Amino acid sequence: MAMPKIGIIGGSGVYGVFEPKKSIKVHTPYGRPSAHIEIGEIEGVEVAFIPRHGKSHDIPPHEVNYRANIWALKELGVERIIGVTAVGSLREEYKSGDIVITDQFIDFTKKRDYTFYNGPRVAHISMADPFCPEMRGIFYETAKDLGFPVHEKGTYVCIEGPRFSTRAESFMFRQFAHIIGMTLVPEINLARELGMCYVNIATVTDYDVWADKPVDAQEVVKVMKENNYKVQELLRKGVPKIPEERNCGCADVLKSMFV
Hints:
Layout: E1 6-10, E2 19-24, E3 37-42, E4 45-51, H1 66-75, E5 80-89, E6 99-101, E7 104-108, H2 133-145, E8 150-151, E9 155-159, H3 167-173, E10 179-181, H4 187-193, E11 197-206, H5 217-238
Parallel strand pairs: 1-4, 1-5, 5-11, 6-8, 7-9, 9-10
Antiparallel strand pairs: 2-3, 3-4, 5-10, 6-11
């Protein structure tokens, strides 16, 4: 079995479209990944999958070993990463059940490991446009073709977690962002540092706490399960459209890296 060039980081809902054929334990300089990397196919395309929060969903967002996860995928030859996340909405028009193909992010995390360059080598990576334009276009058009409610753009504010926002924080965040979650950063940063493509498929589960009804964890879980079908169909139809050769320029960011 050839090693895949496409990796998926997400939750258990991915198993609805992906059947593992092989499980690989990868050792990294940064410790253990969230789980063994599972290799399988989506519509005949080889993919690698890591359950971000572990197979039993027992790793909270602020404790995920993001560096180990990204490093492990890179070690296996993955060039493109599809990050599937659940988010809250900060805008009325971003409704529960909608899909957002994120184009920007704001980082409000506090104590994570954000880089592979902690010395003696220090590097500065451009993050002006952090997401892969080629994959963003593919998944946006695929969602439209499937008739799913989808937003072509959205700014994701990433918070530390595991708690949800206060009302004051939520009102502040909605002045600058469209959606809010706990897992995008530093996953996107680390992929960028290794010259990997990254696309974020975010599914909206709630209206955070700026709206009348405070976010409820049980309601979030209910909507997440309903969103699984959309994510599975999006992967089933979208993954085969990803070109084998990259023409997006994501790897070129390393050429302009300031060291």
